[in-house]
Structures are given as structure tokens and as C-alpha cells.
Amino acid sequence: MTQRTMKHNDWVKIAERKRHRNKVRPKKNVLPFWSLLLAGFIILASAWNYWVDNKPHSVVHAEISHDAQTRIDRYFSKQYMMGSWKLSRINFNDGELNVFVQIPTPLAMTSTEIKSYIKQSLCPHPKSTVWNDVKNNSLFIYLYSDKPRNGDYALCTR
After folding, report:
1. What are the respective helix, strand and coil percentages of the chain, to the nearest 5?
2. How far is CA 32 from each of CA 25, 27, 36, 40, rounded to the nearest angstrom?
3. Burial code of 126-145, b = ≥16 C-beta within 10 A, e = fewer?
4. Distance, CA of 48 to CA of 59 (rounded, Å)
5. C-beta of residue 129 within 8 angstroms of C-beta of residue 115
6. Residues 6+ away with beta carbon under 8 Å from 118
7. Does residue 116 carry a pLDDT above 90?
8. How confident is residue 120, by pLDDT bands cut at 50, 70 and 90?
9. CB 3.0-4.6 Å disulfide test: which of 10, 50, 68, 102 passes with 133?
């Protein structure tokens, strides 16, 4: 026999080397653990933020008495007694007062210009006594020519 024979130890070494080369050892990747931990923290934080922010913030609006409603109505009816603009109505809803003023023709202004005009010219002065009756309720003034829903409005502030 001229063929060289391999000893068992040599054969085991070669087989182990081949197995070691073919076997790719996965790196221990810590990234999935930390990313899962971070994602869990983000989910918990957003859930906490949702529950904390969605508690009903009940703003207690002052009840407007019948006498105060009469004074507010008189105040605005005096403003539009002369001229072609007229006070259509005043709605006393929960937490807000809506004053509707009907004008004969639409104003030649953009919507933002009309809002600033209402705030500067039509809203009561901050030192006006009508604010004592309005209290912490919102006061809106609507200007319209044909229908109230087609008009413009602004929130009056002190």
C-alpha cells in the first residue's frame, strides 16, 4: 500500500477544523434587548402622557344671572341702535356668549382683517363694566350679512 493512511487523531483534528470554520458563531448582539427596553419605555411614557392629559379638565364657567343677561343685552343693543347694523340676537350658552350682528352688505375685507376689526372696534373695552357680567365666559361677536354661518367671528378678550 502506497497510499498514506491517516491516524485517527489527525482525522479528528481536520474534522474539528472544518466544523469550526463552517460554524459561524453568532455575535452576542445586545441591540435587540436595549431596543426592546427603549420601545417599552416609550410605550409606557406615551400611555402615561395620554392618561394624564386626557383627564377631563372641567373649567367652571360662571352662571350668568337673568339680570346680568339683561345688562349685557342692553349694552350691545345700545351699540347698534343707530345706523344700518343691527343686533340680531345674543345666545347665552354654557360658558360662552354669542353676539350676532347683522350688517347690510359684506365687508370688503379678508377674514383675518374682519377678525382683527371685530377685536379692535366691536369688542367691549377691557375696562368696560360689561366684563363684570361676562365674568370668565367666552364672548364671541359674529358679523354676517345674509346667514350667520356665512359670517365671520372673533373671540373678545379683556
Report:
1. 45, 15, 35
2. 17, 12, 6, 12
3. eeeebbebbeebebbbbbbe
4. 23
5. no
6. 141, 143, 152, 153, 154, 156
7. yes
8. very high
9. 68
Q: Which three cell numbers stand for residue 149?
A: 354661518
- What's the average model confidence in pLDDT over 11-36? 72
Write down the H helix ranges in the chain.
8-22, 31-53, 66-79, 111-117, 130-134
* Residue extents of the structural domains in the chain: 66-156
Which tens digits make up the pLDDT trace of 82-105?
888 999 999 998 888 999 999 999
pLDDT at 4 over 70: no
Q: Name the grid cell of 117.
A: 376689526
